[in-house]
Here is the input.
Amino acid sequence: MLKFLLRRLALTIPTFFALMFVTFVAIRLVPGDPVEVRVGERGISAERLAAFRHELGLDQPVWKQFADYCGQLLHGDFGTSLATNQSVLTEFAALFPATLELSFFAMLFAALIGLPAGTIAAAKRGTWFDQTLMGLSVTGYSMPIFWWGLLLIMFVGERWGLTPVSGRIDLIQFYFEPVTGFMVVDAWLSGQAGAVMDALHHLVLPAIVLGTVPLAVVARMTRSAMLEVLGEDYVRTARAKGLSSWRVVGLHALRNALIPVVTVIGLQVGALMAGAVLTETIFSWPGVGKWLIESIARRDYPALQGGVMLVSSVVIGVNLLVDLTYGLINPKIRHA
Here is the structure.
């Protein structure tokens, strides 16, 4: 197991370095000068602009800037935001709970609907339900997040008035100091009547939008895994003993089909983080995704670089954890 762990850790190092290099270069391809964005439109002398660039290290060759940035990361320094003068790590820690809360409820939505739907589709293979589910899953997987989000805002939020379309809670009706950063938990800790329901109400639309793609993936993967398991000998034996179809499917088959499904759920973390950028922007959700978009507009190099690297670290860490868990469940993976 130790060799398996070391091998997986070794594979993450070039991935992390490649992400760091691509992020560093791609950010500098975006038009605009971060110094001019920082000082604004007020008049400033060329000497002062040059002093700012020297202070930020932007007058150095790109390779030297990259080398300096690698040295900072090795010391755990993700830089200081040009817009707020705050540590990037501090800003990320303050905003990440909002993104994590949204991602959790999006995956909860995907799993609660995708697992039963995929199971029923496999049990009723070839029926109208199976064909409809597969069609909807392809549609959901192909649907652009920004279009789906705007569609729900227009109809569910604006026209029908069923849910809020922005923010995490009604700040006029409820106000309390954040404790954990997770709005549902903080609303519960505040003890204010109706605060938890209002926080959940604000989560409905963004969670549905962010969870649509994982829902399609989970449903299709569950169906595929169930079809494979339903053809096994022990399932046929269970049927021969006279057990009901739903007992065979739900108790015997589903438990064994969950291993690849759980792996896919873990690997969807990357998709959730990528989707959160658009989802948070559409719904004005104050999380890491919205922060990164605002950093692009401000040409805030340290915030963008540090934010992308921190998100990438979370995704790589979760993928590594899923990989190790799968290796524990299935020893053949470790020795492959």
User: Anything to note?
Assistant: The radius of gyration is 24 Å. Residues 96-284 form a domain with the MetI-like fold fold (CATH 1.10.3720.10).
